[in-house]
Amino acid sequence: MQSGEVLEWSASCLSARRCSVLAPKGSKKGDNKMIEQKNPASATRGRHKAFALALLAGACFADAALAQTAPAPAAESVDEVVVTAFRKSLATALETKRKDIRVSDGISSEDIGKFPSENIAEAIQRIPGVQISNINGRGSTISIRGLGPQYALTTVNGQAFKSSNFTDGFRYDVIQTELASGIQVYKSPTADMDAGGLAGTVNIDTVHPFDVKGRQLILAGKLQKQDLIGGDPTGKYGLTYVDHFFDGKLGVFLGGGYQELKDRGDYLWMDRWTVANGTYTPARLRYRRIDRETKRSMINGALQFKPTSDLQVDVIATYAKDKTTQDIHQQVFLFTTPSASNVVPITVTNGTATKVQVNNFRLENNHQFENRPQSTGALTGNIHYTGLENWDFKAVGHYSRGSAQHNEEAAILGINIPSATVDISNPKNIVFTTSTALTDTAQYNTATLIRNTYPNGAYRTIDSYEDAGQFDAKRYTDFGILESVAVGAKIRKEVLKRYVVRKDGQNTIPASYSPTMAATGIAITNFLDGDMTLPAAWVSPNLDVYRAALKAQGVSIYEAFDPAGSFRVERELTSFYAMANLKGEVLSKTFRGNVGVRSESTDQTVKGYIGGAANPQNTEVKLVAGNYTTKKSYDNILPSANFSVDLTDNLLLRVAAAKVLVRPIIDSNNQLATTVTTSTDTTGHKVNTISIGQGDLNPMTANQLDVSLEWYYGQGNGLSAGFFSKKVKNGVFTQLVCPTAYEGTALSKDASGVCVSAAGDTYSITQSFNDARTVDIHGYELNWQQSFDAWLPINGFGLIANYTHVNPATSTTGFRLANLSEHTANGTVYWENQTFSARLSANYRSAYDQTSVESFFSGPLGHTVAARTQFDLNLGYNFNEHLSFAFAAMNINNAQEKAYLGNSSRWQMSSATGPSYYLSFQYKM
């Protein structure tokens, strides 16, 4: 069933109690609405009656399916009733899954512009095997079956959709839900699909006007508020228009929306530890408060033109823009600066100094502002021709681009703290006391500050774009089980580029025009929402005042090109495929399937810069000494096969096997080009972060197998169980290295395991490798979707639930699965009638490991994020057939991200984001 179609639950059912449902005489099929009585005075009464008929029909149908009875004789008079809203979206998604030959799961919009989640990432997490990662409590990126965001391919209407920031994996929070009419996660590919989804392919279907009946104009609005940030609610506004012209030969769709969001996240974590004789001792405690403000705009449209019955032309365009700013206030307590002997353990338990006394250490008070505009968009043209008998031709031209700019600046003030105590023995209540109050502005005397730096920042531009041309031909046959043969070719050109400019104040700002904290400082309060026993308030430097002070003195900051942080990757991708579609019987069982092979050729070029001497105007970057180019080419043959067998009318066996790949990825610690970032710490020592380029990495491949058994025992009801296995080759892993020397500087590890030079400069060097082993990832999924109408005296109740188990890779070296929860589960109980609806959803994921690649808060040793469950509540009210309202409370149980290091008793991180709420309306004309 195509997204946007109405799911019709018909009328006649025979079960143990035999019943037949008839629509009122004179009624007609509704166009995406309930059957109405002709008499306007009884419209409300008629709608309730029609809805009751729909519920009764569903109950009878489910009862009949459960009883496995034979089809009933045709009733004397049968009309149709329509089930709408959430139940319709569930049944549509289930029917799409049933008809698909591939192993897939999906979700469907309840109506145009009405998706059952706040954002697309949060909607996708309801799909079996899909996990999300949050930023400030808001869903952003996804993982499929334990493989991280970079291993999934995201497409829109089957074509690549470039990420706004290719170093993070695809950012779903940039896209508003109004873009999607349905989302499918394909876990087994077919030969005609683009390669690149080692974990799976997420396809977002947009609204197509030919899938919508009649003219529709929809207005929508929403008020949203996160509890922790406080303040006034922010708004969201949307307009959607669908129409048809020239006797239905031209379809037009246009949608647009604007949204503002505000949220806040507070994080407390142990950023560094010293490890000696097996004992972990706190070395650096950090506060971090992030106040985030987002302004989003999106426009998408589609034209579909069918001048003849055998020719159709589609043009689809999508553009989404996200302007996000982050106001970050940090307190960094450097316990081991100036000396590790500052830290005196008081209590040591199970290899951890759970309580320590710290003397004469340094505090860095940091206020950082980040401006992060980003955008993503695509333009696709399709031509579909069926004018030759038994032939089907398609041609596609496609362009997609994602872009992000990260502009950051910071003021950093350094002071001395005479003493403090830290007690982490109870992870639920970290106790931290300081001898001087963090709100005492007297200790920030500008003449005696250890550090007074502004600005400290960079401007990074990140772009990714793709041009593609594709041609497909299908020949229908009448030759035994061979239904059709399809062949196709595609040419893609992909570019990934990064350009970095550093903007740093090189010297301490003179006291003569440095802002004073007492007069200009910003009061920060209620850190961690009052949780924990620690100073929850401090005074932070004011960036606006620092900017004004430099301007008043006529000081301009030199913008230095950073050659070591800039690079360009070009890929030319050529592919061909051939696929046979099969249909027939085996052992008297009907089956559908396909077998095919795809050939992928990749020509990759990495271009970067060779750094020379330090830039005299900004010693944190180097001058350009030259350029380098690294080329690599490889070919991959990717066979695939998908089969579904109808064991009975309602029981389906699905088997799929394929070879999949993902080309070398780029993230913050895995670069195809060498990148170097340098900064200066409180003591004046350099902090060098270096990723050694690996332009010759091989693509990761996996031989995968899926087997599932699916039972569809009633309209909208289903139960399935599936097993999957992926054997990954050339898995890429990144590790910290400390060579004996780097660019002529001798290096060694200190007591805390940090790579340092004799001068005290820090070197954080990462290098990526292909793992020679074959890593086995396997697990199983369970999925249940059930209406309770046949079981309960009150109609409208139902359940959707799924559980996924993934066996994690147990090796501590080489390629391993970060961000992998061994157990994940989702469940939603719902109730709805024609007027009201309610849903309570729970999302659970077990503990998972993260390195510094996956999380800023993990530190160099990594950490394990503790298991957690989040509950969300949705309530709906349909005022009439045109106007509806919804209320949602997200994270109503205030689930927080907490982490530990090594074992669950060794606390590493706590956070606070709190619940959020929204109230929305939709008016449909």
From TrEMBL:
Main subcellular location of this protein, as a coarse class: membrane
Where does this one sit in the cell? Cell outer membrane
- Give membrane topology per the record: Multi-pass membrane protein
Superkingdom of the source species = Bacteria
Q: Which InterPro entries match?
A: Beta-barrel_TonB, Beta-barrel_TonB_sf, Plug_dom, Plug_dom_sf, TonB-dep_rcpt-like, TonB_rcpt_bac
Q: Which UniProt keywords apply?
A: Cell outer membrane, Membrane, Receptor, TonB box, Transmembrane, Transmembrane beta strand, Transport
What residue stretches are annotated with the TonB-dependent receptor-like beta-barrel domain?
A: 450-892
Q: Does the keyword Membrane apply?
A: yes
The record places domain TonB-dependent receptor plug at: 106-201
Concerning its family, UniProt says:
Belongs to the TonB-dependent receptor family.
Q: Which PANTHER family match?
A: PLUG DOMAIN-CONTAINING PROTEIN (PTHR40980), TONB-DEPENDENT RECEPTOR-LIKE BETA-BARREL DOMAIN-CONTAINING PROTEIN (PTHR40980:SF3)
Q: Which NCBIfam families match?
A: TonB-Xanth-Caul
Q: What is this protein called?
A: TonB-dependent receptor
Lineage of this protein's species? Bacteria, Pseudomonadati, Pseudomonadota, Alphaproteobacteria, Caulobacterales
